[in-house]
Amino acid sequence: LAKTTQPISMDSYEGQEVNITCSHNNIATNDYITWYQQFPSQGPRFIIQGYKTKVTNEVASLFIPADRKSSTLSLPRVSLSDTAVYYCLVVQTGANNLFFGTGTRLTVIP
Amino acid sequence: EAGVVQSPRYKIIEKKQPVAFWCNPISGHNTLYWYLQNLGQGPELLIRYENEEAVDDSQLPKDRFSAERLKGVDSTLKIQPAELGDSAVYLCASSPRSLQGRSSYNEQFFGPGTRLTVL
Fold first, then answer.
1. H or E stretch including B107?
2. Does A102 score more than 80 pLDDT?
3. Of A20, A59, B94, B115, which one's alpha carbon is 20 to 30 angstroms from that of A47?
4. pLDDT tens string A6-45
5. Chain B residues with CB inside 8 Å of A87's CB?
6. Residues B57-98: pLDDT tens digits?
7. Under a CB-based contact definition with an 8 Å cutoff, are residues A46 and B107 in contact?
8. Which residues, 6+ apart, have CB-to-CB distance to A31 below 8 Å?
9. What gap in Å lies between CA A65 and CA A63, rounded to an integer?
10. DSSP result, B60-88
11. Residues 53-82 of A with CB under 8 A from B
């Protein structure tokens, strides 16, 4: 099981770009990297998933280097509503467990 | 499109009492998950269903927890008897794709959860 390591918390001012890095040294060949966002009193919400290089959607970008041992979630121009906990997961084919970890608590400051 | 529905949203019981949580996944989603989330922690998988089959229940404490997904749609998670340490949020999620096979692509849709307090 490829567990992940990410910072416990981060602060950012409104309008700035935020990059959250996740380490997953034991990632396997067929594993995908997935990020979720969770607001208080809500279930997590899928943000983005990728396998290699760069993936972009309307919410975020995901950068994955060639060795795939880490990944970076990039949130452009954050607003106060982006204050949440962000989880990095490595999803394995036929996984017997989906490990969320403790996530990164992002606080956006006015 | 309706999201994942869970009920009740809140439940307060005394220890040793039974409790049940209900989940209705998004229509057409064959994969269903139950998670437990403690305060300040990430969700922890309890059980995963592919249709009506529990394909991963290795993290489910089977001495007191049970789950069922009759007809491969709605699911119920039960605790009997509840203990003080069971106080947590119980999350249900569904996915249109299975983790079986060659693809690991997995987007899960979570419900709002049921907050259980055991006194």
1. none
2. yes
3. B115
4. 999 999 999 999 999 999 998 888 888 999 999 999 999 9
5. 42
6. 888 999 999 999 988 899 999 999 999 999 999 999 998 876
7. yes
8. A2, A24, A68, A90, A91, A92, A93, B104
9. 7
10. S-TTTEEEE-GGGS-EEEEESS--GGG-E
11. none
Bridge partners of residue A91, in order along the sequence: A32
Chain A contacts of B59, Cβ < 8 Å? 97
Torsion over CA of B71, B77, B80 and B86, rounded to 10 degrees? 170
Q: Which of B4, B43, B108 sits opposite A46 (nearest CB)?
A: B108
Q: Determine contact: B42 vs chain A, CB below 8 A.
A: yes
Shortest CA gap B107–chain A (Å): 6
Which residues make beta-bridge pairs with A81? Answer: none
List beta partners, residue A62: A55, A73
